Write the structure tokens for this entry.
Amino acid sequence: MTKKRPDIKTVVLWISLIPYIVFLVWGLILCIKGIVTDWYGYIDLYPIVVPIGDFWFDYVIMGNILAIALAIFSVGYPIYYIIDRRLESGKPPVMIGDTSSDNGKKCTRFFVLYALLYAVYLSIPISGFTGMDIGIFHRYIEYGFHAMVWTVICGVFIPVFPALLLFDIIYTVKCWKTWQQWQKRLILCIIGGIVLFSILAIVTHI
């Protein structure tokens, strides 16, 4: 049997995701380097967003044509790809209970991806516990509620949280009625856990 080659749209999708991978790996390297060489008794997660933040503020917002084109491509094409695939299949991106068919398996994987994306929100309460360096010229660490607010601000300006929140709202509203009870309970537990974790981060640093 010959393996089916990926179509050009899928190849372009992976190309559009390369900047995310590069910025994430770059940020993790900076974070690990800071922990190893400059340990202050807390985990500074800010370096993770430094590369993409520098790219966004220093190039995109400042009007660099190539940076703007790359940003539009990396943000716009994945959205186009998902919509295009859904339209081609003639079905909305929902999770159904039947996994015996190929369509059911595809929907299952889509729901799993949707659920895993909530892990991004964990960066908010984690910053409340570990602290966040918000100093520009001098080190200044915030904890608890203020650190969480700064994490949200960074996530809005990059902008990770607005795009993710918009996707979550649209997908949840569109698919809530089609989910089974265990799926609804799972999502509610994840959201409840993030909220509880956030409250603990605030309470422990009052």
Residues 93-104 have pLDDT under 50 and may be disordered.
